Amino acid sequence: MGGLRSIVLATSLSIANHAAAAEQVNVYAAGSLRSVLTDIAKVWEPAGSVKIIFTFGASGLLKERIEMGEAAEVFASANTEHPATLAKAGLTNDMKIFARNDICALHAPKITVTADTLLDLILDPAIKLGTSTPKADPSGDYAWMVFERAEKIRAGAFAKLDAKALKLTGGRDSPPPTAGRNVYGELVATGKADVFLTYCTNAAQAIREQPTLKSVALGTALAVGADYGVTVTKKGGAR
């Protein structure tokens, strides 16, 4: 996420410059940005006059909250569709792509898998395949893109994966993660999923917390990338 720091800081500064007597900036952001944005705030806040207040969650659900009038000034989404929709509706300024991620397969230590054998593994009826919730969370949408790619490799794969995938996170009724813990790591470590399709950054964080877990990048035929979009709400005053 090479451009993340500079663009988020520039966006926050823009709001601070245009919002009269602003004391804080409300940033609604994808959960996969929690670690890096929190680190940015720790570095930047002591040097500035504006406090950054974060609300992290599934990007689709955050978009709906902004549409209903919640007081976000910055929206950093794990896709471009949601911020572009807000901009088209006149609720925000133009959307900018500011970061990129990829989908990886986080898996339990008992499993041996490579990029070449991943499709066979996740199609195995005995393997519990975890995903986030499509529509509510872009991570789920990207998982279904993986399924679509799988169909091009093996006829019938999409239907099997669509039927077996466990939507364990990112939905309106999904249980909240343990505070300070990576939810994907916990779900795999506790056996609720044997394999979880999530962002590579999430997988790396899960492994830092639980070193016995492993991850594998998707092979070229299955690979799906994620462009992250950021936008500033017009109530934030940015130009």
Short note summarizing the structure:
This protein is α/β, with parallel strands linked by helices and 239 residues long. It is built from nine helices and nine strands. The longest helix is centred in the middle third of the chain and has 16 residues.
What is the strand and helix layout of this fold?
Layout: H1 4-18, E1 24-30, H2 34-44, E2 51-57, H3 59-67, E3 74-77, H4 81-88, E4 96-107, H5 118-123, E5 129-132, H6 138-153, H7 157-164, E6 166-169, H8 183-189, E7 195-199, H9 200-209, E8 214-217, E9 225-232
Parallel strand pairs: 1-2, 1-3, 5-6, 5-7
Antiparallel strand pairs: 3-9, 4-7, 4-8, 4-9
Describe this structure in words.
Strands 1, 2, 3, 4, 5, 6, 7, 8 and 9 form a 9-stranded mixed beta sheet that branches. This protein has helices at 4-18, 34-44, 59-67, 81-88, 118-123, 138-153, 157-164, 183-189, 200-209; strands at residues 24-30, 51-57, 74-77, 96-107, 129-132, 166-169, 195-199, 214-217, 225-232. With 239 residues, it is of the alpha/beta class.
Along the chain, the helix and strand elements come as HEHEHEHEHEHHEHEHEE
- Estimate percent helicity: 25-40%
Rounded to the nearest angstrom, the distance between the terminal CA atoms is 25 Å
Average of the residue pLDDT scores? 88
Strand residues, percent? 15-25%
Give a quick account of the main beta sheet: strands, pairing sense, barrel closure: 9 strands, mixed
Instruction: Name the overall outline.
Output: globular
Contiguous low-pLDDT stretches (5 residues minimum) are 15-21
* Number of separate helices: 9
Rg, nearest Å: 19 Å
The SS-based structural class is alpha/beta
- Total strands: the figure is 9
